[in-house]
Amino acid sequence: MVELEDLPNVGEKTAEKLRDAGFADMMRLATATAKELSVKAEIGEGVAEKVIEAARKAEEIDFETAFDVMERRRDVGRITTGSSGFDELIGGGIETQSITEVYGEFGSGKSQISHELAVTVQLPVEQGGLDSECVFIDTENTFRPERVEQIATGFGLDLDETLSRIHIARAFNSSHQILMAEKVNELIQKGSNIRLLIIDSLTAHFRAEYVGRESLASRQQKLNQHLHTIQNIANTYNVAVFVTNQVQARPDAFFGSPTKAVGGHVLAHAATYRIWLKKGLAGKRIARLVDSPHLPEGEAVYKIENKGIVD
Ligand code: GTP
Ligand code: MG
């Protein structure tokens, strides 16, 4: 293990600044940008560049072979949605090292699936979980512990223990949301066994705060920075990131879907899996996989019951 103090250009003082800013491990440093590091750790950009360079050397970051990538993919963990049809659609559950985005109109089940995953990630691996804890960033004040209890009861889990393994952050605005996501690094570095990060909703604050065409560029820039942070967490700590997103009406659409996801290209490119949730007849709900690097498009039908998501 290489310590911060082992890096050239890093004395005790700089090491302390880096730790305080949440850059305690090599991988986190190696994947930072000089600008980000200099702002957050309050060090010169020149020093930041050198430190990052050294961390990359220490982590031996260079070209890797497809075999290396395959090896890393072997560590990918999957978390069940509660519905086997839904799981199958996305290749066996929500993946670690990836960002999974669900979008859909109000009441389509985005928050319900978020609650479900907060419970199922705690299950043992044989039951579709990762025997781990999670972070739930709640931006719309819709997290309900009562709902967690109902779902946990369905799985026969201890209620108090289940609740205490979900770390909640209420985010009041987009800056707060960005900050809380960065804090996940600290939580993991302090030893919490976090394998799932939920952000419900990823885009609501951004959408409300940046209105009008003239603010679009700054909104997308902020959102991009936020996505960079969460992708980094996913890669560095083998965490699954699950985000929800709203849709906006597309009045000009005669064919195809009359709604589209908020967030534009920035989000479309960042999310590894994109799933569109629709309300069907008689309480049925439809999940449509619209984008994935290696799975075919398709649909799954599921239902929301008191005990959670079911086939
Ligand atoms: P917005 O956040 O408003 O965009 O919607 P959303 O997609 O997050 O919707 P959400 O996940 O909150 O889904 C709400 C729906 O889930 C409700 O309309 C109910 O149909 C269903 N639901 C919520 N709680 C329960 C429950 O305890 N039992 C059952 N059977 N259904 C529930
Ligand atoms: Mg919701």
Walk me through the structure.
The protein has 311 residues and is of the alpha/beta class. The chain has 2 domains: 4-59, DNA polymerase, domain 1 (Orthogonal Bundle), CATH 1.10.150.20; 72-310, P-loop containing nucleotide triphosphate hydrolases (Rossmann fold). It has 13 helices and 13 strands. The chain has helices at 12-20, 26-30, 34-41, 45-58, 66-73, 84-89, 110-120, 145-154, 159-164, 174-189, 204-209, 216-237, 264-270, and strands at 78-79, 94-95, 99-104, 133-138, 166-170, 194-200, 240-245, 247-249, 259-261, 273-279, 284-291, 298-305, 308-310. The strands form 3 sheets. The protein has a 9-stranded mixed beta sheet with strand order 5-4-6-7-3-10-11-12-13, with helices on both faces. The chain has a two-stranded antiparallel ribbon with strand order 1-2. It has a two-stranded antiparallel ribbon with strand order 8-9. A hairpin with a 4-residue loop joins strand 10 (273-279) and strand 11. Helix 12 runs parallel beside helix 13. The longest helix is centred in the C-terminal third of the chain and has 22 residues, at 216-237. The chain is globular and about 65 Å long. Guanosine-5'-triphosphate is lined by residues 104, 106-112, 150, 246, 304-306. Guanosine-5'-triphosphate (GTP) binds next to helix 7 and strand 12.
